[in-house]
């Protein structure tokens, strides 16, 4: 860990520095029953049109670049940022407008360390690449798609824009030395037995998105990961399958 010499944060007029995490040792995941249930503790707050500004050296050229998150309300939602622009000191400007974004999940921050002390974006760097995660806002109809924007060779590019209800972890997996984002959908609770110390949820696998290959799901890594940390019964969620969680950490797949 180190403090980047050219990294700082400007947020609502305040400047702060934060410890950078260029590598996260090993991919972790929270597979406890409490995490998997269909609940969200992330608050949705109404807000007038506004702009949040984050300064960070996105391309490691020792010059600060600018991220602007704007809440314009053009899509009818005044509670979420619907526009994000990147101004690179050596690469011009690029704006993305196909989103409705909120704050970084508190559960995600418990397992991951961002390069900036901001709750609007999460920044992860490796070598000469930077990934900016902007979390989809929670609303009455569920969660909006999250965005992953990669900055490589001074050029921001949105490589992932997908509905990931529960992003879990970003990091180098230490085997392929590839940066993955792990996420999953919502598992519905379907009972349990207090005397047996179990809780039951619907089957909903984790997906591993390869952020060094344009955000595509890595099929082999996904299957391997679910076998090791969850259970594996195919790519799609299945409401006819149930996963029993034991308090001692064991998991068992059941058919309804």
Describe this structure in words.
- There is one protein chain.
- The protein is globular, with a radius of gyration of 19 Å.
- Mean pLDDT is 81; it is low at 1-29 and 31-45.
- 8% of the residues lie in helices and 41% in strands.
- The longest helix has 11 residues, at 219-229.
- The chain has helices at 33-36, 106-111, 219-229; strands spanning 9-11, 14-16, 50-56, 65-71, 83-88, 92-96, 122-126, 129-134, 138-139, 142-143, 146-152, 155-162, 166-172, 179-184, 189-193, 198-203, 206-210, 216-217, 238-246, 251-255.
- The strands form six sheets. A four-stranded antiparallel β-sheet has the order 3-4-5-6, with no helix packed on it.
- The chain is built from three helices and 20 strands.
- The protein has 256 residues and is mainly beta.
- The protein starts with 8 loop residues before the first strand and ends with a strand.
- The chain has one domain.
- Strand 5 (83-88) and strand 6 (92-96) form a beta hairpin.
Summarize this structure as a short list of keywords or feature phrases.
single chain; 256 residues; four-stranded antiparallel β-sheet; 3 helices; 20 strands; 41% strand; globular; disordered N terminus
